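Q: A reviewer asked whether we had any structural model of the full assembly, not just the individual parts. We don't, so I'm hoping you can provide one. Inputs are below.
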Amino acid sequence: MKKILIAGEGGQGAQSVAEILARAANEQGKETTYIPNFGVEQRGGVSLAFLQIDDKPIGYPKFDQADIVVAMCNRAIEQIKKFINDNTLLIYDSSFIDDDKIKTLRPLVKKYLNLPAKAIAQKGLSLKVANIIFLGALSHELGDLTAGEIRIAMNNQFKSHPEFQELNEEAFDEGLKYAKERPDQEFIGSKPSEIQKIFEDDVKSWERFPEYCKGCGLCIISCPQKAITFSDDLNFLGTNLPEVDLKKCLACEACQKICPDGAIKITKKSS
Amino acid sequence: MNNLPKSWKKETLPHKFCPGCGQALALKILGYAIDELGIQNQAVYGTDIGCSLLSWNMFDVDTIQTHHGRATPTMVGFKHAKPEAVAIAFMGDGGGYAIGAQHLINACLRDDKITVILINNANYAMTGGQTAPTTLIDEITTTAPAGRKIEDFGRPIHGPEMLKTIAADGAYIARCASNDFEETLKYIKKALQNQIDGRGFSFVEVLSMCPVNWKKNAQGSLDFIEEMKKVYPLGEIKVPEETK
Amino acid sequence: MNEAKSAVAKSEGGAKQLLTGNEALVRGALKAGATFLAGYPITPTTEIMKYWADEHLKNKNADNLVFLQTEDEMAAGFATIGACLAGIKAFTTTAGPGNILMQDAFAMAENLRLPIVSFIMQRGGPSTGTVIYSQQELNLTCFGGNGEGLRIVYSTANIQELYDYAIKSFNTAWKYRFPTFLLGDGYQSKEFSTVEQKEPQEIIEPSPYLLNPNKEAGTYANLRNTYNLEEELAEVIASHKKSFDEIAPEVIEFEDIHTLDAELVIFSHGIVSTVAKEAQEDLRKEGLKVGLFRPITLSPFPTQSAQQVVSGKSILIVESSLGQFARLLKSQISMDFSKVKELFKPAMGVAKQEIIEEVKKIIKKK
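A: Here is a predicted structure for the entire assembly that you could use as a starting point for your response.
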């Protein structure tokens, strides 16, 4: 019997991971239930998935103590605390979840897997498959299910997008390898590094707000000078922040106007 | 102009709308309109159900989140009780053209002096992308997997044009697109001014991007807005005589 | 008839006046300081809108009365909510199928504890039923919507009470901030009789929820009824329930008539309790020890007082419904069901003789 709680931002793919595992379990003749728990918004906001796998039929789809908890984002940390006991394994994104938040978990958590999923994803894969890295890691921890079966279920899940199969498989293997080798042993989170927020010259400043930006890209396509591109820096949702080439920027404010989140601020300096 | 309207509540940012959402953009423009007209302390803001409810704590403006289709009658009641308030009813295509259609039509018919802002994103977004009265012909949704067909769902509704036929002389009715910043700001300000001046009912439909349910990236979502403009022409559909 | 005419001529202030029930409701509402009615015409409440429209016309400039005939009952309910949010004593009125539609608004009022007042004048159901009378909207009025029934419901018995409890409904609503209902019926609506229009002892002042002039500068009210997490909503419900239980002792009302030495107690509410009272008096005259218990507030229910009455006694429950009141009663107090008999007359008036015969059957069997 395994009770697995997966917690992420809406849109990070927590539910997909749970569904893939449920299907894989079913294929192997296991009993399984999976139930999502989330708020109303389509994106962002905490998304929880309750997954159970057992040999016997399962009654109630929710549970109050988990065997494995997967935490993909900062906002999940408060939600998962009450599900953790001495035997719970916590798998968390150490490259994205702040160390401040991990500190609050230290008294509770006895077993953990430090998995820098976003960082692994950004190295030649794609941020979009960070959740698949977690899937790979989970496949190592779920003794009853074989990684092979889970991989098949994963490819079935995304069969309408065969162009992503290779990427998914790579991400899966990365996660699996990480869980086997466990290169990072410390129970720490990410320490926010200083990222450049203001880009300025003598006549203008272009300021970006990582705490508001959602990485939609409207600013990039709205800039008449094509002065804006995606950077490697991440916003609060874990997607890419834009950055500006000041030499091209005319401070026309098109990007500031089109941003639905108010994440860009142009200031013209008085000369 | 600042990157955020003064009338937006900073403490509740980042807001809960999806990346690239045209509705959030329209709400930002509404915030600027409230700032420029100086009505932050005279306005009441009523939201409907659907993605609009995510704006319940977006504004430093007294707000009530109501039931589906009922933002209009709630604001109508408030305005009748307190005529000096600036009552804003904010909703989507379901709240205005489906479950709340009779309230919208009758508010216009009675010439209730409220301002209705309706987000047209051609689907029911919050519940995952079902067909809306505004869904385009052949547009694929979860309840029209082969695309919207006239024989199943009727024709896409032209709300502002429909309201024009029953509107009183003092009513103001317009349609814009949220990625046209200047035009949208102008129309929303005119609509609110129409109420402030006591002329009559005012209504602005705002075509808005919905990249998540349209399954498009930023460029794709703007391209789809251009498609929508061909079906839903932009402009001021009705302007009170005295303001012409 | 001449007497009646002169009574009308003398009227003004507290004197007795011949009124219909619907008119008594309007007079009570005005006396309570109500200034807003939104509604949709439905029998038997329609005259309430007519009288209010007349008052509105007379007082258009003086009293700022607002009258809104809406396109349907959903709009009426939500417009009433809108007015209430503006700090106005607002009410609505409906019956039958209109009551069903209004549950949408009532559920929101429950979630936000909004002090809207509603006059429900029951008619035959289900569906269009009759336009006449019943006691079949107890379930809807007490427990309609998708909530837990944290509402205050007064069940009136006669048209004097329509006037008195119309006033009380506004005071209760604005003092305790729960949606408050006056549950009457079609007989009471149409009844024509004398009403004494007493001056109320107190009038509770309303206050706005939105655009409150007394709020701290720079603060804004953001009200909602949607929550993201189960825990958030559960906390809200727990808080409402706690408040409801705290105010219950101040709100509960009932009539207890000769139950102390009774061997049989009749339980009834609303207008049925008036005919039950006549039956009870006749039975006592014949030497039979019969009492009557009538809850006036159906919610909060006078549980303790009702419980004290029942032990060792036979019970007869009488109502113009197929057991809506009986079910409420049984959920509130423990009874020996072998001693409970029911007289159900759904959507019909109850005759005194029917009650007397039932009581005698029960007492004879003992």
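A: Points you may want to mention in the reply: The two ends of chain A are 70 Å apart (CA to CA). The mean pLDDT of chain A is 93.
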